[in-house]
Structure prediction request, 553 residues.
Amino acid sequence: MSDAPKPQPGNPAHPPAGGHGATAPERLDARGQALKALLPEVLPLLQASLSIALDEVVLTVSPEQLVEVCRTLRDDPRTRFDFLRCLSVVDYGDTLQVVYHLWSMEKRHKMVVKVNLPADNPEVPSVTGVWKGADWFEREGHDLYGVVFTGHPNLAPLLLWEGFPGYPGRKSYPFHDYKEW
Amino acid sequence: MAEARPLEVRELLINMGPQHPSTHGVFRMVVWVDGERIVRVEPHIGYLHRGSEKLCEGETYLQIPTLFDRLDYLANFNNEMAFCMAVEKLMGLDVPERAQYVRIILCELNRIASHLMFYAAFGLDAGAMTPSMYAFRERERIQQVFEAVSGARMMHDYFRVGGLRQPPPDDFKERVQRILPALEQGINECDTLLSRNEIFLARTRGIGVISAQEAIAWGMTGPCLRACGVPYDIRVVEPYSLYDRFDFDIPVGTQGDCWDRYMVRVEEMRQSLRIIRQALQQMPDDGPIMAPGARRLPRPPKGEVYIRTENPRGEFGVYLVSDGSEKPYRVKIRAPSFANLQALPVLMRDCYVADCVVILGSLDIVLGDVDR
Prediction:
């Protein structure tokens, strides 16, 4: 494990960058429909980036807008997304996507916020100021995917040891480099 | 004679773990203390990190439930359930009723077994040895049912995408029915043994308090959040499987301290028994156990799904991205212990070093779940 990770030729079974349009049918429930109608009012400038993935309303924003959008979604009395369900990083080759799953305890509706980052310079502002619980999720994203969450209070390694070479979550990290005996 | 110097006061750094019997696995925390008071806590995790998320990308959908068994190893059925549901939702599969009921009964039994384990460990953390004996006696009854159903006591690998691996044994209903009265009595015994013990109360009441608002902000879920008085249970707020058919209550606490977190779990065991009784009544005696259209090697369509279930430890989420092949493109596991453990420094501020172990125990973490 001392060698730096060697880039691996792309797996042909996996789609190229950006190929993440959902093709499973849409199944929005009543709350999701209401939210979909409501979001353009709450965030008037971002109508174009709304989409649906299965049963979730998805909003894609740029890294610059992210914190502002998250704060609005949390504080606006019509949305009240006070709970961060999950924060994930997905590697799409040239793009690293950070996915925020939100939930409102009061309104009981849910949505997804996505940010696309270039894989060679993945930098996104931290949302720890909006949801404290993002803390470890962001550290994990930094650990395994190398996403830099600017403004995070302590972006130290969490799951890996200090000085671990490479980002083992990424698709380019060697995977099946062992042989069965 | 030299003049008497004033006593030098300085902070002391204590390293707890990773090989510490009361950290429930390989967990390390560095504690700064000023006398007996805790000044700062820094949790260190990752000693059990196996890269489960990455491993999932290299396995077929049929193989992955075995990996999920090994996350939260005290709630194996609940983990399998979450992953199978994610794939089923993406594929649009309708799991037959009989399989759904078997799943729910096993998941609720697993919840009781997990909470009994918590009860045993928490008693030990607070210095009570006897409760663990009672808890393990009751847990054994459940383990025997699990063994009869899946052939294994821990890593079951019993749920399949679309249903179950094999039908439950013919006497499944009788077996479960038979242990229910004993379990109920056992839980009551456990309750009377520990819950209102004076020493136990002194060790847990008002210790490790967190407010509801803060718990939500930190992403706490499950019994830890409900102890703060928030009736947040995925089985109710976003019902999955057949949970909307059962009549049960969500136990909540009032103070958000260690005792509340303990008591919520004890009450939850009783509610799980209620669910199991209703499920046994409603469950059809025969019928298919695999969904029509389910394949041995599932191949969900392109797309993504986020599924969450109420695990014994809280909200267990699976974010699955599929590219249409027989292996997932990305699996993100939202582990309840991981999110609950984050708030540890908040829970431990200004408490005494002697309460460390009790506060950590009250979170009921499983390190396999935290580190994945």
